[in-house]
Design goal:
The protein has 110 residues and is mostly helical. The chain is 75% helix and 0% strand. The chain contains 6 helices and no strands.
């Protein structure tokens, strides 16, 4: 049941239906135990959706929570290679921090 819900959330994310995807992912994280790999994967996808929808600070907070969880780290280090990085957490963190740096450079102080 949880795997199907997670799969539907991924499909909804790909279709750009982020609000519905977040509902499914929230259900997965609430129902899956801490040791269940789907819990960590769903939490990562929630952070990714926050990033994709421009909620960068929220994504960074979610990312910090994931990095602090040893069980999540073990699961996510084996994430798909599509992220062009050894660690999806590192990839998302790098994207967020580079975005923050670009934003800081554009602030003009009178």
């Amino acid at each position: 049941m949880l795997r199907s819900l997670f799969g539907r959330a991924l499909c909804l994310k790909e279709m750009g239906r982020y609000d519905k995807a977040l509902q499914d992912l929230t259900s997965v994280t609430a129902k899956a135990g801490r040791e269940n790999s789907l819990q960590a994967q769903a939490a990562y996808e929630k952070a990714l959706i926050s990033y994709l929808t421009g909620k960068y600070e929220k994504a960074l907070g979610q990312l910090k929570e994931l990095e602090a969880d040893p069980a999540a780290g073990r699961v996510l280090k084996d994430a798909p290679k599509r992220l062009a990085s050894k660690s999806p957490l590192r990839y998302l963190r790098k994207a967020l921090l580079s975005r923050q740096a670009r934003r800081a450079e554009t602030i003009v102080i009178p």
